[in-house]
Recover the amino acids of this structure.
């Protein structure tokens, strides 16, 4: 199994996740790491301004973001270690949001991460996908399946980022479908 298998999968999977008739569980996830960072920033601001009634909303986003951060290698966090960031998020969660200074610190860090990655994140995802699509390696079945799972994760994050940047799912669907017809 080689790059041609990844290319075939790319086209079929992109059509599937962008088709409006595909079941929700197979479509674009509503979040990737970047969108979760933006969401947590908005939630922290809302909590600090007392516009959010239950801190559980923040806690659930912290849990989802922490999990996503552990599995993401496209976000540039060379300036702040991932584990330290996750620990900071967990500390804020454990304190129930009762430390406004910590909340402001988290907001500052999130804004800094977003600003440093606004242009890079989509490029990094694209590079990861390209590395699968144009690798000359051949894989055994077990290794191919492992890599396919990772590839699919990148496709979902990439699609989410494209939509977050302003393109519609319909636009993506027709572009990929046209590409598939050309091949």
């Amino acid at each position: 199994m080689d790059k041609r298998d990844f290319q075939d999968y790319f086209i079929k999977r992109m059509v599937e996740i962008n088709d409006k008739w595909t079941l929700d569980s197979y479509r674009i996830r509503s979040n990737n790491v970047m969108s979760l960072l933006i969401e947590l920033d908005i939630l922290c601001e809302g909590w600090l301004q007392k516009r959010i009634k239950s801190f559980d909303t923040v806690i659930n986003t912290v849990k989802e973001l922490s999990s996503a951060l552990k599995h993401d290698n496209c976000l540039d966090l060379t300036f702040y270690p991932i584990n330290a960031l996750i620990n900071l998020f967990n500390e804020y969660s454990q304190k129930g949001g009762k430390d406004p200074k910590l909340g402001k610190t988290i907001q500052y860090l999130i804004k800094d991460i977003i600003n440093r990655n606004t242009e890079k994140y989509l490029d990094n995802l694209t590079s990861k996908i390209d590395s699968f699509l144009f690798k000359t390696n051949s894989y055994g079945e077990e290794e191919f399946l492992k890599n396919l799972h990772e590839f699919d994760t990148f496709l979902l994050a990439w699609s989410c980022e494209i939509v977050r940047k302003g393109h519609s799912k319909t636009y993506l669907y027709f572009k990929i479908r046209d590409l598939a017809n050309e091949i």
Remarks:
- The two ends are 19 Å apart (CA to CA).
